[in-house]
Structures
1.
Amino acid sequence: MALLELRNVIRRFGDFTAVDNVSLSIEAGEFFTLLGPSGCGKTTLLRMIAGFDVPDSGQIFLDGQDIANTLPEKRPVHTVFQSYALFPHMTVTDNVAFPLKMSKVAPAEIKKRVEKALEEVQLPKFAHRFPHELSGGQKQRVAFARGLINRPRLLLMDEPLGALDAKLREDMQRELISLQKEVGITFIFVTHSQDEALALSQRIAVMNLGKVEQIGTPSVIYGTPANRFIADFIGKINLMEAQVTQISNTAMTLEINGLGTTVLPPKKEIQAGDQGVIAIRPEQVAVHALAKQAEIPHAHTGKVLDFLYVGDVTTYVIELDSGIQIEALLANSSPGRARFFEVDDPVIVSWPQEAAQFLVDRP
Ligand code: ATP
């Protein structure tokens, strides 16, 4: 049985549907992320799991029990917010001990558990400091320790790393992964950052306009996005408008606007005439100097329009003869090599046929 199950959950504000018929289940011990652009309904969904808000219809089961009528403080669920929500007049120890004091746990037991919790988040040395004497990352660790001290069944986190700078955020992501492994508690993490979702999660639910569009492991979401929205939202990708011209049991022939035909393996429920996009990740695109053209299958000629060197990789924007622009990501693996091509260099681009995916547009 799943630890948490949402069945057809709907939440409306006036005539606006913020959460639109969401069903999903989360297993005990998972690191599960709700990912989507601002306003897609992530926080509203999280608030209903926590009990701060109620669905207009649908059900939420925790350990098989419908928790619709359970008050937030009676749910074995704790929420960590981006704003830390620490008590400013209390020390780190007292902040972390607070939920245990509320539950009237014996002082000796509180002391033992707070010490353990501070060790889990690597903060024993800061036990006597006040929140204003801590960095953002340290404050968020205190919030995690307070969230875990009562050993909830679910720890909900709403953009908890959102206020931290990039480097600290990366460190905290690593710490969160090991913390979750150590404590074994189910984490539901909300973010609009696709990098963060890919880095942290065992599974991701991608949301858009109140609906869950795809649920899967990071590699499935990145490697086989279910539709144009997800392909575009997760990582960088080249999308080229295309139409299915022929389909058989063994092959699907497509006309890519401005690039001619291509043949891919057939996909279920696709018919001749269907419109959509061909999607190819920039790291799948190869770029060659013009002279090699004869040897390369499925090659397209063009010229370098622009490039962005960022140390380990260079992203090239290439304009093909048909006017289509394609991005290619090349690793700068040789020491000291800054780039392979200059602006205006004539080049050939190609990609393995199997790297291209057709994503059909459905109304
Ligand atoms: P963000 O990443 O910006 O926090 P989100 O995906 O968490 O976005 P929600 O906060 O769940 O989005 O909001 C979803 C939509 O519902 C938004 O359009 C928001 O304006 C609307 N909304 C949320 N709460 C209310 C409310 N109490 N009354 C009216 N509309 C609301």
2.
Amino acid sequence: MVKQRILTGITTTGTPHLGNYVGAIRPAIHASFDDAVESFFFLADYHALIKSSDPQRVRESSKEIAATWLALGLDTDRAVFYRQSDIPEITELTWVLNCNAAKGLLNRAHAYKAAVQANEEMGEDPDCGVSMGLFSYPVLMAADILMFNAQKIPVGRDQIQHVEMARDIAQRFNHNFAEIFTLPEAVVADDVAVLQGLDGRKMSKSYNNTIPLFLTEKQLRKSINKIKTNLLEPGEPKDADDSTVFHIWSAFASSQETSRMRGEFENGIAWGEVKKQLFELINGELAAARDRYSRIMDDPAYIESVLQHGAERAREHSEALMQKVRAAVGIGSLT
Ligand code: TRP
């Protein structure tokens, strides 16, 4: 059977929160148990350098993200799980792709354009604070993807353009040199919710409205109590569709439990009671993983050994592919 190859990366600048869990980590781990797919998941630590100049944060985030995936049950004998910087062929391929990527293509990247626009609005030089890392970010991402001939790239909406750029760059290379790269496609799952944060906007570190994934029970309860509600009293009917607490509830509950809760809203359940039940629901789903997480975080040597095992597996692919690429472009031994 020819397996479908799925690949995705996580930039190592943050601490995983419930939005990452519901929108990306949980569905990715789930999909990795499908026998029809081969999964590649990696820590995008070179991407982290674009956003962060805090070495301690990048290191800590790499550790937290790796421990999170392991605690949540990723089977690293099935999925290839590695750290981008352990695969030197990725930065090598990035250079070759840089020589094949049109500057005009990268000028159109949303992240770069947003930075330029913000500068213009402030009356600054358009490229003020824009590093070459930010500008060529999509090329590094193309190398991540094309290196492993990945077909499906699960990403958030903000990353679709980058996957399309990877496809463009691959096409151009294949046309100019040799048919080496598989053309990747972004997959944005419509069924996985974009989770709302404490204030009802999308849960995101940039809005400072997140609920971190592995809080202690006490902190989790406190954090859930901060979710925005309104002033309706116990006994007054409440609109479930307009409620962040209900929205988060439905990301964790079965469909039966979701309809039951909808009924409770109509019957005027008290906000305090909804939040208590939400805490129990989320805590029930995460308690065992939380214990594993804290044990794994205390054992960096274990995390490191898992990543090294992943790097070995990944490099079987990347070394072979890079050899083809070097040969195709005329780099290498004369004999
Ligand atoms: N740029 C992605 C993000 O910020 C992370 C990432 C890096 C990635 N390389 C990738 C995602 C390759 C998918 C495929 O979310």
